[in-house]
Amino acid sequence: MIAEPLTESVDRVLGLRLKQFQQATRLPVVFAGATRRHRAGVELRIGHVRGVLGPGLVDLQVNRGRGLGGSVLAAQQLRVVHDYASTTTITHDFDDVVVRQERLGSIFALPIVIGGRIRAVVYGAVRGSQRIGDVVLDQATTFAGSLRREIAATAEVDVEPDPMPHTRLALGELLRLSAETTDPARRDRLRELVAELRTLTGDEPAPSGDGRPLAPRETEVLHLVATGLSNREAAASLGLAEETVRAYLRSAMRKLGVGNRTAAVHVARSLGCL
């Protein structure tokens, strides 16, 4: 194992913030770990857990390509599985702990990237048949951005710290409320508040991954998707046909270079488009 000073900073911040991460996402189970370099590559060690049933996840070592976390180390992007036990897109090295001991079903693994490398992975999970929705994933991505900035600032890495992480969490909640309300006047006022808060945080829409900006309607559809609305619900909220909403989503996904709604929200958030 190769000693790295940043690993200690990452592990310390994860330990301090995991409870807040759980509160922000309202998930029953969350866990996280820092990565370490060794001769064979990068290894993830789960060092912090909340809501677990047993000790199996603590100090669990995850190598590149193994399990959900290992697939994130390989792909370097958010991954979600909605039935861990039956999914065929990951290996099942850790089923004894994840499935049989913890009884976890829907799980996401979110990388914390600093200086071009994955420095940590944060997980969220639920038990049973419940699925983790886009609202939770959006909240998790926002909080992960704050973690990244805090870790970088603590370790004196050249990444600007987030001055207002709670404001960004409030933005997500306002977007959810604006999507759910049936009062047009209230919806307009909520969207005005969102615009005002974005002015404070500086979160103006940014160009998409291929250099083409997302169209206003594409951004608006992604905002609603991020709050957990289905295509049909988003269409009703915007007064559009469901197929029109699908077309906007397909266009946004093509510009962002992704293949599904969840990944589109994650990439758009990371680019500052949401």
UniProtKB/TrEMBL annotation:
<dbReference type="GO" id="GO:0006355">
    <property type="term" value="P:regulation of DNA-templated transcription"/>
</dbReference>
<keyword id="KW-0804">Transcription</keyword>
<keyword id="KW-0238">DNA-binding</keyword>
<dbReference type="InterPro" id="IPR039420">
    <property type="entry name" value="WalR-like"/>
</dbReference>
<dbReference type="InterPro" id="IPR000792">
    <property type="entry name" value="Tscrpt_reg_LuxR_C"/>
</dbReference>
<dbReference type="InterPro" id="IPR036388">
    <property type="entry name" value="WH-like_DNA-bd_sf"/>
</dbReference>
<feature type="domain" description="HTH luxR-type">
    <location>
        <begin position="207"/>
        <end position="272"/>
    </location>
</feature>
<dbReference type="InterPro" id="IPR016032">
    <property type="entry name" value="Sig_transdc_resp-reg_C-effctor"/>
</dbReference>
<keyword id="KW-0805">Transcription regulation</keyword>
<dbReference type="GO" id="GO:0003677">
    <property type="term" value="F:DNA binding"/>
</dbReference>
<dbReference type="Pfam" id="PF00196">
    <property type="entry name" value="GerE"/>
</dbReference>
<protein>
    <submittedName>
        <fullName>Response regulator transcription factor</fullName>
    </submittedName>
</protein>
<dbReference type="InterPro" id="IPR029016">
    <property type="entry name" value="GAF-like_dom_sf"/>
</dbReference>
